[in-house]
Design a protein that fits this description.
This protein is of the alpha/beta class. 39% of the residues lie in helices and 22% in strands. Strands 1, 2, 3, 4, 5, 6, 7, 8 and 9 form a 9-stranded mixed beta sheet that branches. Helix 5 packs parallel to helix 7 and helix 6 (202-219) runs antiparallel to helix 7. InterPro entries: Glyco_trans_2-like (IPR001173), Nucleotide-diphossugar_trans (IPR029044).
Length: 252
């Protein structure tokens, strides 16, 4: 008989604002596993008191790829469903998932299209209109590329499917939280560049930063998002600028 069981996985750190709603949206899974990076807020307490069936593990954070691969190692089901704490699975997407994995023939992995929100308001453009991420996949392809610390992806997946309904992504809870995320990701990306022996160049730092703003604001229609578009385009440029700034320190 075909195994259609699902392990829902989350890696978290200080997600007391998000963890309860996120876990509620994956309660349909056969098992739920959370890997926490020793949160200092009430994340762990919320999980233990409100979600006793959740399997909770802790591990010191090094990078996203290592955390995801470790979390996968705890899973027992044929299907892996990865969710970030700031993402929500809608009832419609849940139905897509359950329907798809029960088909006689399936893909090995599936993209989820995402709708973004900034301070609770939907972002329509700024590059988010085409965003999609692999969030559902079989154990046989369940391994993230260890050469990428951030914006991690599976090692090798051919022709992933795409589910119809959207995953809701509340990544931009506030300017401050998104700014902090940009800085954190930039540090990790700088380490990736350093290990690839890419040298710091001021002209590359400036040109990439300027282009990223132009790409987000003009080419990806951030201008149509009003003030949100300006903010998100600026933060996109800041990400490039800080990545090379941290890269320069690696060579210092």
């Amino acid at each position: 008989m075909k195994d259609s069981k699902i392990s829902a996985l989350l890696i978290v750190f200080n997600e007391e604002k998000n963890i309860e709603e996120a876990l509620k949206t994956v309660e349909f899974a056969d098992e739920i596993i959370v890997l926490d990076s020793f949160s200092t807020d009430s994340t762990v307490e919320i999980i233990k008191t409100k979600f006793p069936k959740v399997q909770l593990y802790q591990n010191k954070f090094e990078d996203f790829t290592k955390q995801r691969n470790l979390c996968i190692s705890y899973a027992k089901s044929e299907w892996i469903l990865f969710l970030d704490a700031d993402e929500r699975i809608t009832p419609e997407l849940k139905n897509d998932i359950l329907k798809e994995i029960k088909k006689p023939v399936t893909q090995k992995a599936y993209f989820f299209k995402r709708k973004f929100f900034f301070k609770g308001e939907k972002v329509n453009y700024s590059g988010t209109q085409n965003d999609k991420n692999i969030r559902l996949f079989k154990r046989e392809v369940a391994h993230y590329d260890e050469h990428k610390r951030v914006h991690e992806g599976l090692d090798s997946v051919e022709n992933p499917g795409v589910l119809e309904h959207y995953l809701l992504h509340y990544s931009f809870d506030s300017y401050e939280s998104y700014h902090d995320k940009v800085i954190h990701y930039s540090k990790l990306k700088a380490k990736d560049l350093y290990e690839k022996k890419i040298k710091y160049r001021l002209i590359k730092q400036l040109s990439k930063s300027i282009f990223n703003f132009f790409k987000m604001y003009i080419l990806k229609l951030g201008i149509l998002d009003g003030r949100k578009g300006i903010t998100l385009s600026y933060l996109s440029a800041l990400s490039s600028f800080k990545t090379y700034e941290f890269l320069k320190k690696e060579y210092a």
